[in-house]
Prior knowledge:
The complex is a heterodimer. Chain A has two domains: 2-76 and 152-236, P-loop containing nucleotide triphosphate hydrolases (Rossmann fold, 3-Layer(aba) Sandwich), CATH 3.40.50; 90-151, no CATH class. In chain A, the strands form two sheets. In chain A, strands 6-7-8-3-9-10 form a six-stranded mixed β-sheet, sandwiched between helices. In chain A, strands 2-1-4-5 form a four-stranded antiparallel β-sheet. The model of chain A has no long low-confidence stretch (mean pLDDT 88). Chain A has nine helices and ten strands. By secondary structure, chain A is of the alpha/beta class. In chain A, helix 3 (92-103) runs parallel beside helix 5. By secondary structure, chain B is mainly α. Chain B has two domains: 17-287, no CATH class; 305-530, no CATH class. Chain B contains 24 helices and no strands. The two termini of chain B are 37 Å apart. The model of chain B is unreliable at 215-221 (pLDDT under 50). Chains A and B meet through helix 2, helix 3 and helix 4 of A and helix 14 and helix 19 of B.
Amino acid sequence: xxxxxxxxxxxxxxxxxxxxxxxxxxxxxxxxxxxxxxxxxxxxxxxxxxxxxxxxxxxxxxxxxxxxxxxxxxxxxxxxxxxxxxxxxxxxxxxxxxxxxxxxxxxxxxxxxxxxxxxxxxxxxxxxxxxxxxxxxxxxxxxxxxxxxxxxxxxxxxxxxxxxxxxxxxxxxxxxxxxxxxxxxxxxxxxxxxxxxxxxxxxxxxxxxxxxxxxxxxxxxxxxxxxxxxxxxxxxxx
Amino acid sequence: xxxxxxxxxxxxxxxxxxxxxxxxxxxxxxxxxxxxxxxxxxxxxxxxxxxxxxxxxxxxxxxxxxxxxxxxxxxxxxxxxxxxxxxxxxxxxxxxxxxxxxxxxxxxxxxxxxxxxxxxxxxxxxxxxxxxxxxxxxxxxxxxxxxxxxxxxxxxxxxxxxxxxxxxxxxxxxxxxxxxxxxxxxxxxxxxxxxxxxxxxxxxxxxxxxxxxxxxxxxxxxxxxxxxxxxxxxxxxxxxxxxxxxxxxxxxxxxxxxxxxxxxxxxxxxxxxxxxxxxxxxxxxxxxxxxxxxxxxxxxxxxxxxxxxxxxxxxxxxxxxxxxxxxxxxxxxxxxxxxxxxxxxxxxxxxxxxxxxxxxxxxxxxxxxxxxxxxxxxxxxxxxxxxxxxxxxxxxxxxxxxxxxxxxxxxxxxxxxxxxxxxxxxxxxxxxxxxxxxxxxxxxxxxxxxxxxxxxxxxxxxxxxxxxxxxxxxxxxxxxxxxxxxxxxxxxxxxxxxxxxxxxxxxxxxxxxxxxxxxxxxxxxxxxxxxxxxxxxxxxxx
Lengths: 238, 542
């Protein structure tokens, strides 16, 4: 579903944020992407969802190249950024309808989906208020619902649990499992290693723009905790 | 307080001026944008300085030197007041970094002062640009007898230039504070703010009109001396503070001069003390967004992609007072003026044959005046930059950049077309033109609106600015926003002159038709150029 091939990203000052990384996430898999602050996680994620331009390497989503066919890729992808900067001048329901309009979602379907996830996140009653009146967590919930509105084949999340209350975090984890069960793939970054260990089928650890460890969770962790593995590989890596 | 105020001011300047981008930025496009902005500002400054100097020389040549100090101060004050009115609210209240500043160990006075002084520094450049050349012209014509007198005049003009923006800025800020305080109690904050500011502006224009029309008309146009007398009285009546400066400079009196300085500073200080007490309360009320009643899920309605984008633009435009007032003002004035013409104009035309002749002479200038006002509402010159931190939403959606641009351009045209229609119909009824001229007015409006829309979009694509703290940085200070207004304004003025000149040789209607066709074609060309070319015209911020 997602194939990152030899992807590198250098900024205009010449600094290499990500250096030649390759990751594959199959349909039905949840892949956790972990690393220190500034390791290159958000850069990679923003390139995957077509927000960031890049020249080196390629990224394929459902067989389409993000560089050559960005629209085809975006049609099957959903993205939730680390900081949900949504349109503050719209109400929650107007924002969700805007996203549904862009994806061409049928009126009846969007109504059902918004109702379903709105109730799950306990935010339906607040959807008539302006987004500017929402807390960080509420914005995050609206961002999550907007990402689910078109049943994405690939869900990309950057630090999705930041700002969510425990119940909402649990709901999101259940939704992620449910989506994978339906054949979608999930690629997400997190600093919460316990959650990553419980949720992910696959883990990619990145340090200073390079992958220092990657593989199936069971093979990588074995008898240890993910935290131990993370500390070990990031400290031993050059 | 002084050192803290200086620190906050310095940071504000570094953050908003674009200087850091020039010094430390690696993004060449951003650096070019900063340089282009600097060049545009220099061009405007040269025009302002040149015009001010020529006006000063003109006053001297006509023997109206005594009027010049009052006129200069009144002009600076009026323009400063007008522009401060449009931005004071956004600068002083509910700005983006409010929480950050107020959580620091800074006094409320320091925070307000830093905001006010930063706004003052922007206006000061204009004041110096007008007062120094006019003062130089004054000195060239003035009857001075000693070096001491010359020095005194120079000092008075210079110091007055420094203090001139204070009173109008304070007045505008007081109004801004009142508007903010009134608006903060309501759910319809934006509507209340816009209506109150527009009402004040209309009152000022009406007051100006009243001043211009009162008095004996015979007296007005008898002799040059009479004009001087009438002109002399104007600044005093409109802005009585000018009496102090007039007296000080013309009669070399120190006391009125000191009185002006004390008054300017006193007014500013009182404002700070007055606002300091209610500052937190006003901001808290402005920034707290009331929640609506419980939302009950009902069947949702869908739009086309373009419709959804246009609706988003509409919500953005109408939910921000600075955006609505600064960008929408041209369109609003065009509509208000055309309706006013309809209400008052027809009777006046029927009663005054001379006025009718003047109107007939100006009939090919009038549409350009209205299209100039309409073109000043150029949302496309800022709407892309206004996406700011929300840009990721559009970029991650399955729509290409062409559709994004189409949505922004369609919104500007949809916004302006009804206004153009209202203006054309009002003028048609008032001025009793034939149907052909009416259709030409409409065609010209459409051509010029299309042109301002595509050229604004072009400017915004060239000078994209997504990192801003306060949206007025984009609306009032960005290279694309400034170019969008200035280029359209000057172009309309040039076209107005060209049309009048050509109408002496050929039928003016043919000239209007020709200009409409030419600008429709140019607009079409720019539109095609905008939607072709590279894969991604929207620059992604790193």
